[in-house]
Amino acid sequence: MAGPRRAAVLGSPVAHSLSPVLHAAAYEALGLHGWTYERRECTADDLPGLVGGLDAAWVGLSVTMPGKRAALAYATSASTRARRLGVANTLVRTDAGWSADCTDVDGIAGALRGAGIADPVGSQDVVVLGAGATASAAVGALDALGTGDVQLVVRDPARAAETTAVVDAYGMRGLVRTFDGLDEVDLSSTTALVNTTPAGAVDAVTADRLVDGLPAHAVVLDAIYHPWPTPLAAAAERRGLAVATGLDMLLHQAFGQVEQFTGCSAPRREMHAALVRATGFDVRPP
Q1: Which of the residues 23, 39, 68, 272 is marked catalytic?
Q2: How many degrees, rounded to 5, is the angle at CA 249 between CA 182 and CA 48?
Q3: What is the torsion angle, in degrees rounded to the nearest 10, for the CA atoms of residue 224, residue 113, residue 272 and residue 270?
Q4: Cα separation, 130 vs 243, whole angstroms
Q5: Widest CA span in the chain
Q6: For all residues of the chain together, what is the average pLDDT?
Q7: 68 is an active site residue
Q8: pTM value?
Q9: 6-102+254-279: what fold?
Q10: Strand order in the sheet with 122-129
Q11: What is the pLDDT of residues 4-47, one digit of tens each?
């Protein structure tokens, strides 16, 4: 694609986002001179007006919280998985408007694979903490990994309707528990525990209760990457469990975005190296 092109990550708050690190590294490695990628503060209510006002130089948008459902609603077309999940973290300009996708599915699946989860998972349980947009994406990732059973642990079951609908759409067997009822959550056959709740939602006491119930082969993925380590990650590491981070997820979801924005294969090694330099974390290589 000739000429300068623009892309951005939309969210609120968005100042902490590391997506510019990944995309800038990709554009440089691909020789896409004049391509830029920035952060834009944007709420769900702001999204239609902001996206609608972008000129033809804009080729793609990464969408983080709280705009993932608004991004799907705004799009003129969408991938099958975005429609099924009800959320989108990717908007790509097309001749007909904006097309939506959810590369968070690839991010979660890639992070779990990198941590050593069995693929396919088979009949073992997976536990997902939370019921927001990332939890819905986690269900899509778990389907890609062959999961048949999902337990959702939430604060308020009434707010889990959208995620349980996704579980049903994928034909999985789902069970909803509350954090107040953790004693009822059977973790003994759990192959993965995926935390999609905000920072601080899982305290040290809750983290210990969850991790103590997991078998030795379980993988823990915490979608948070700042601050790190989270209480859940720290508890898992004390037990010697494999831990995947929000940075692993961020890296793997960015590959698909770069490819959709540019039409080129993502330079995975260069993107990984840039993320390691920016954070100082030993992020697993792709």
Answers
A1: 68
A2: 95
A3: -150
A4: 18
A5: 59
A6: 94
A7: yes
A8: 0.95
A9: Rossmann fold (3.40.50)
A10: 173-178, 147-154, 122-129, 190-195, 219-222, 242-244
A11: 899 999 999 999 999 999 999 999 999 999 999 999 999 999 99
